[in-house]
Amino acid sequence: MTETVSMSQEVRDAPRRQVAITALLIVGGVLILFVPATGEGSVLVPLSEGHGLSAVDMVGAALLALGGTWLEVLVVRRLPYLALSPRALFGLGLLAGLGMGLLIASVFSGFFWWWAVGATALGVAVLVLVPRTARR
Q: Any stretches that span the bilayer, and where are they (predicted)?
C-alpha cells in the first residue's frame, strides 16, 4: 500500500520536476549567452554583421535549445490537461510564434532592438503555459 502511494506521488511530481529541470537549463543558457563579447573569444560561426557564435555562445545556445525543446514537448504532451480554450491556445501560439520570429529576425537583419519585443512576447506565452504545465 505504501508503494502505491509513493508511486502515485512520484507520477504526480514528475511534470513539476521536469519543468524545474528545463527552467534551469534555459536560465543557464541565457546566463551563458549574457557573457560579454570580450570574454567569449573569437567568433567561430558568423551569422550577420555584428552577430556571431563563439564557443561560449554555442554552449549557451545548446543549453537553451535543449531546455526549450524539452519544455515544448512537456507543454504539448500536457495540452489536453491545461484547461485552455481553443481561442486562448491559438492566441498563445500566435504570440509565441511572433516572438520567436522577431528574435530570429533581429539576429539575421537590421531589426536589432526588435529582439526585446520578441523576447517579451515569447516570455508572456511561456509565463502563461509553464505554471499550468507544472501544476497539472
A: 20-38, 58-76, 88-106, 112-130
Q: Is 42 left (phi over 0), alpha (psi -120 to 50) or beta?
A: beta
Residue bearing cell 508503494: 3
HEC string of 20-72 equals HHHHHHHHHHHHHHCCCHHHCCCCCEEEECCEEECHHHHHHHHHHHHHHHHHH
pLDDT tens profile 64-75: 899 989 988 998
- Measured distance CA(6)–CA(44) in Å, rounded: 49
| Residue boundaries of the structural domains of the chain | 7-36+51-77, 84-136
Round to whole Å and give the CA distance between 20 and 17.
5
Burial label for 78, CB within 10 Å (0-12, 13-18, 19+), is middle
Residue type, 60: G
pLDDT tens-digit map of 28-80: 988 988 888 777 778 888 776 767 788 888 898 899 899 989 988 998 898 88
